[in-house]
Amino acid sequence: MVDRAKRLRAEQVLREFVQGTISNFDFEEQFPQSGPDKVLVAIANMVWFTYDDLSTHRHVDEHALSEGESEILARCLLFLGTDLEYFGPTRFVAPDVPKDNDPSGRLERLLNRIAGRQTISSQLEEWKLATWPFKDPQQLQQATNAAGNA
Questions:
Q1: Eight-class DSSP state of 112
Q2: What pLDDT does residue 31 have?
Q3: What domain count does the chain have?
Q4: What is the per-residue pLDDT for 29?
Q5: Which residue of 40, 47, 135, 138 has the lowest C-beta tally within 10 Å?
Q6: Centroid of chain to Cα 75
Q7: What pLDDT, on a 0 to 100 scale, did the predictor assign at position 112?
Q8: Following CA atoms 125, 131, 135, 138 in sequence, which dihedral angle do they give, to the nearest 10 degrees?
Q9: Residue 128's pLDDT is what?
Q10: CA triplet 5, 59, 83: central angle to 5 degrees?
Q11: What is the pTM of this model?
Q12: Per residue, what are the HEC states of 5-54?
C-alpha cells in the first residue's frame, strides 16, 4: 500500500542525505520507516549500506557516495516520487561485515547480495541492481519519462 505523505517525507530526507545536507544520524531519525508501504523499509535498509553507522558524518569528502551508490539512490528518489507498489525484498542482510570503510567494497557486497551471489532469500535473486527498486527496466523507463514530463 502506497503512503504518499510518508513517501514525500522520505524523498525529502533522502535528497538532503544524498546532497550532504544532513548527517547519517539525522537520516536515521528523520526517514519514515513504519507503516504498510514496504518500499520505505527497503530503501532505508539499502541506504544503510552507504554509510558508517558508528560515527556522525555527511556524504561529503571521504564519505562521499561512489558513482554506483549515487545511481542506486537516484533511483530510490525517483521511486519515492511515484505511486508504484513495491513488491521486492525489504531486508538485505550482510553476512560479510566490512572491515574498512571502502565505498567500492560496500558496493561490491551490495551487488553480490542483489545479484543473489550471497542469497539471503529467494526473492533477492529476482531483483537486479540495474533497476532496483523498480521491478524491471520498463517500469524504470516509465517513471523516468513521467518525471521528465512533470
A1: H
A2: 97
A3: 1
A4: 95
A5: 138
A6: 8
A7: 60
A8: -140
A9: 64
A10: 25
A11: 0.77
A12: HHHHHHHHHHHHHHCCCCCHHHHHHHCCCCCCCHHHHHHHHHHHHHCCCC
The answer for residues whose C-beta is within 8 angstroms of residue 70's C-beta and 6 or more apart is 18
Question: What single-letter amino acid sits at 97?
Answer: V
Cα separation, 76 vs 47, whole angstroms = 9
Domain that holds residue 142: 4-149
Residues of the chain with pLDDT under 50: 95-101, 117-126
- DSSP label at residue 83: -
Sign for the pseudo-dihedral over CA of 4, 144, 43, 114: positive
Strand ranges (E), 59-117: none
- pLDDT, position 106: 60
**Sign of the four-CA dihedral 93, 109, 117, 132:** positive
In this prediction, residue 125 carries a pLDDT of 45
Q: Which residue has the cell 560515527?
A: 55
